[in-house]
TrEMBL record:
InterPro entries: Homeodomain-like_sf, HTH-type_Tx_Regulator, HTH_TetR, KstR2_TetR_C, Tet_transcr_reg_TetR-rel_C_sf. Transmembrane segments: none annotated. Residues 25-44 bind DNA. This is TetR family transcriptional regulator. Keywords: DNA-binding, Repressor. The lineage of its organism: Bacteria, Bacillati, Bacillota, Bacilli, Bacillales. It comes from Aquisalibacillus elongatus.
Amino acid sequence: MSELRDKIIKNSLELFSSNGYHGVSVNDIVQQCETSKGGFYHHFKSKDELLYVIHDTFILYVLNEANQAKKRYDRPMFQLEEMLRALVRVYDLYNEHIIVFNQEYKYLKQEYNELIKQKRDRYEEILKEVIEEGQQCGEIRQELPTTITSMSILGMVNWTYQWYKKDGPKTIDQIASTYIDIIFRGLLTTEALEEYQ
C-alpha cells in the first residue's frame, strides 16, 4: 500500500469525522493531504470508493483472522475464541474507520453496498459453520438455533464501537476476554466449559 494512499485514508477519516461524508469534497481531501486531484484519482475512483475502502480495511481483517482461526485450530471452541478476539480487537485497530463507516454508510452506492454485504455474509457463514461444528462434536449446546446464536454474538460485539475508548479502564484484550466469558457460559456444554476453564 502506498504512502499517499495511506495518507488519503487517514486524512479523509479525520475530515469525515469532523464534517460528515457530504460535508467533505475531494478538493478538501486533496488540500488536507497536500497532493493533487490526480494523486487522489490514481488511488480511488471516487469518494464513494474511498468510503468503501474504509469499510473493506476492517472487514478484510476479521475475515482473514476467521480463516486463520479455522486453519490454526481443529476444535470449534478454540476457533470461536480466536474469531471473537479478532472481532473485538478490530475496534481498537480500526476504531476511527468503524465509527466513520457506521455514520456514513447510508451514502454508499448500491454496487459498494453489495460488495460489503457479500463479505459480511461470508463472515457470518464462517461463524455459523464453527457453531454448527461445535454442536456436532458436543462442545456447543445443540438446542441453540445457529442463526439466532450467531446474530446474538455479532449484535453484542458490533455495539462495541459505541462505547469503546482506547484510553478507557480496560484494554481491548480484557474486553475480549469478558465477551468470551459471557458468550461461552451461554454456548458451551458443561463438559466443554470445564475443559476450557
